[in-house]
Write a structure and sequence with these properties.
With 446 residues, the chain is α+β, with helices and mostly antiparallel strands. It folds into 3 domains: 221 residues, 3-Layer(bba) Sandwich (FAD/NAD(P)-binding domain); 97 residues; 75 residues, no CATH class. It is 38% helix and 24% strand. It contains 14 helices and 22 strands. The strands form 5 sheets. A 7-stranded mixed beta sheet has the order 6-5-15-16-17-14-18, with helices on one face. Helix 1 packs parallel to helix 4, helix 1 runs parallel beside helix 8 and helix 8 packs antiparallel against helix 9. The longest helix has 31 residues. The protein is globular, with a radius of gyration of 23 Å. The model has no long low-confidence stretch (mean pLDDT 94). Bound molecules: flavin-adenine dinucleotide. Flavin-adenine dinucleotide (FAD) binds next to helix 1, strand 3, strand 9 and helix 8. Flavin-adenine dinucleotide binds next to helix 1, strand 3, strand 9 and helix 8.
Length: 446
């Protein structure tokens, strides 16, 4: 059995620790920040995440599905809020499938506790990785108090997020890397529950306020409140405001009054929160290779940071852990070079695909969910899926409710686009979308 260093005790690092420890390896997790169970390291940044099918598959395989399910809220539909406050509910699937809302901080705390309960896992907080010897799997950590810790291991995993220090070291060698910031940043706003603890909106829907160039989302918490996230360009344009033009209390009040009128009365301290909470950036990071020397590998956001619009960043990271675990089953626990090479080869194309899919869903959430043509397409696809589940699985369901590899889902989604373009061009399709004629046309084009 091996001695393993995991750099980064976030969502993926803590799950990876559980997987590897349950196999019998000795696992040491080194986290830059303090222990989130003792200090509020997530203050103002405790965004909510959705756990979906792939995430659950991995959590189940690691034996922590129930522990995580206990802190989630199931979400069955998107609830669109227009400017007037009218609501339109669109289920995620035709058979009542759900995605699950959870607070990132709460989930991290739960996974760390599950990892720490295993006798062969040790967690070290306030340890910032500053260097990695890639030949020897040796890591160097800097502590708050100033001391320097050197840790030798057989294998190192960099699960230290989008701005990974492990990856930074790999970049000094033969390494391809790209980093793209999108123009949109985000900011969190907490929606409180009613005084009696009941929610002010349907907790089983993902609330979306799509406004073409910007949008707000709201996901339920177990305490009846919601975590709202505003996505908006940093810099305004002729068409739309930006964070740079919504800065003063008066501007914030006027902005929400104009664009999110129905949300205003739900958050009494909205202006204070908006001004207090940080504005964060969003980047897409691609890199290659994901492992070197069969000794050091990247996993989670360190390998594939993506925009959050499919809600798949962590789910993809969880799937990385599950795939790695399956490869260890197949090739053995002492064959790291083989396992890590296969892990990287299998996951890299999927990391690229979910990055593309996530950008596509950004456009869908931001402007298309308010577009009648898009809504008609969703209805036709739901109808096709209901009648021919073996032939038509909409892209969203492939990504969120199946184990189909992201790269294959992406290819199939592009094929669906071409077919639906022709179907939506049929004269009178708005009236006859449920007809056999429309169904036949779509199936013929398949
Ligand atoms: C607004 C928003 C919404 C999102 N929604 C969803 C969603 O609905 N569903 C979903 O699946 N994903 C979602 N994501 C993505 C998800 O948050 C990430 O994919 C996930 O957190 C990645 O986990 P990770 O462990 O790889 O990285 P992180 O969670 O970033 O954890 C990395 C850890 O490494 C530590 N670290 C960093 N540098 C060092 C160092 N030098 N030394 C030691 N430790 C270090 C950090 O402190 C951190 O604890 C969302 C992201 C955002 C921004």
């Amino acid at each position: 059995m091996s001695k393993i260093t995991i750099v980064g005790g976030g969502l993926v690092g803590s799950l990876l620790a559980i997987f590897l420890a349950k196999r019998g390896h000795t696992v040491n997790v080194y986290e830059r920040r303090g222990d989130p169970r003792k200090t509020d390291v997530y203050a103002g940044r405790s965004i909510n995440l959705v756990v979906s099918h792939r995430g659950w598959t991995a959590l189940r395989a690691a034996g922590v599905e129930q522990a995580v399910k206990a802190i989630t809220v199931p979400v069955y539909a998107r609830m669109m809020h227009d400017r007037e406050g009218n609501l339109n509910r669109v289920p995620y699937s035709i058979d009542d499938k759900a995605i699950y809302s959870v607070s990132r901080g709460e989930l991290n705390r739960r996974l760390l506790s599950e990892a720490e309960a295993l006798p062969n896992v040790k967690l070290f907080f306030d340890h910032r990785c500053v260097d990695v010897d890639l030949q020897n799997a040796t890591c160097h950590f800097q502590r708050e108090e100033g001391d320097h810790v050197v840790v030798e291991a057989d294998v190192v995993f960099g699960s230290d997020g989008a701005f990974s220090a492990v990856r930074q070291k790999m970049m000094l060698g033969r390494f391809t890397y790209s980093q793209e910031y999108i123009e949109h940043d985000y900011k969190e706003v907490a929606f409180p529950a009613n005084a009696d603890g009941t929610p002010k909106m349907d907790p089983h829907s993902l609330h979306i306020w799509p406004r073409r160039w910007f949008m707000m989302m709201g996901l339920a918490n177990q305490d009846g409140g919601f975590t709202g996230t505003l996505f908006m360009p940093n810099t305004h344009t002729d068409q739309a405001p930006g964070f740079d033009t919504v800065r003063t209390p008066e501007q914030v009040q006027a902005f929400f009054q104009e664009h999110f009128r129905d949300a205003l009365p739900l958050v009494p301290d909205l202006v204070e929160q908006y001004l207090r909470n940080p504005q964060s950036t969003l980047a897409i990071i691609r890199c290659n290779p994901w492992q070197v020397n069969g000794k050091v590998a990247l996993i989670g956001d360190a390998a594939h940071a993506i925009v959050p619009f499919y809600g798949e960043g962590m789910n993809a990271g969880n799937e990385d852990c599950k795939v790695l675990n399956d490869l260890l089953d197949q090739y053995g626990d002492d064959n790291w070079a083989e396992v890590l090479t296969r892990y990287a080869a299998k996951r890299k194309p999927n990391g690229d695909a979910i990055a593309d899919l996530s950008m596509r869903n950004f456009v869908e959430m931001r402007d298309l969910v308010a577009d009648p043509k898009f809504l008609l397409r969703k209805k036709i696809e739901g109808h096709l899926q209901a009648k021919h589940p073996d032939k038509w699985l909409p892209l969203y369901s492939q990504v969120k409710f199946s184990d189909i590899e992201y790269k294959d889902a992406w290819k199939e989604g592009l094929r669906h686009d071409r077919i639906m373009e022709e179907v939506l061009a049929m004269p009178g399709v708005e009236e006859k979308w449920e007809s056999e004629e429309v169904e036949r046309k779509a199936l013929e084009l398949l």
